[in-house]
Specification:
By secondary structure, this protein is mostly helical. It has 5 helices and 2 strands. The protein has a two-stranded antiparallel ribbon with strand order 1-2.
Length: 172
């Protein structure tokens, strides 16, 4: 698999990871702020915090599925259209699940919500997306390495640009 094919294959997870920030600004759904942890605390600390919402999980997963459908003419997901949507959805869900797990670990370590935890903030969604993709598509070690390195770098660039445009509070 070429570098470009690997990037495009994993794009549903990458876009799903970026979607919750954008969904937070969409008037019709921005007030849907149900936290993934439903406000539950453990040892006096929130499990995930208020920034991890079901709105973000659903919109990100849907964008993952739609992205896979749009890419299906040029990316071989080895599936029917419905299965391709499902694969993109599960990659997106996996990316957001990885982000939520990392957030839970941050809370346990006393790192405040929204604070940077380099390099885990840049890799959580990649690992989650790859883990959720694995049951349906086993990628070579080389392809996974290309995805990890490429999306790590892309994450840094996208977050910096989002910060420069005022979409994000912090540059990393």
């Amino acid at each position: 698999m070429s570098w470009l094919q690997a990037i495009l294959l994993f794009l549903p997870a990458g876009l799903a990871n970026a979607t919750p920030v954008i969904a937070n600004k969409i008037p019709v759904i921005k007030n849907w702020q149900t936290p993934m942890d439903f406000g539950i605390s453990w040892h006096g600390k929130r499990l995930l915090g208020t920034n991890k919402t079901w709105r973000g999980v659903l919109t990100g997963s849907l964008i993952g599925g739609l992205t896979a459908l749009l890419l299906s003419p040029i990316v071989d997901y080895h599936s029917s259209l419905w299965a391709t949507f499902g694969l993109g959805f599960i990659m997106g869900f996996g990316a957001l699940f990885g982000d939520a797990v990392e957030s839970a670990i941050k809370r346990r370590r006393g790192i405040p919500a929204g604070s940077s935890w380099f390099p885990f903030d840049q890799t959580d969604y990649i690992i989650g997306g790859l883990l959720f993709l694995y049951p349906w598509m086993q990628l070579s070690v080389q392809t996974m390495a290309v995805i990890i390195v490429s999306y790590f770098g892309l994450h840094l660039v996208v977050v910096y640009v989002a910060h420069s445009l005022g979409i994000r509070d912090k540059p990393i």
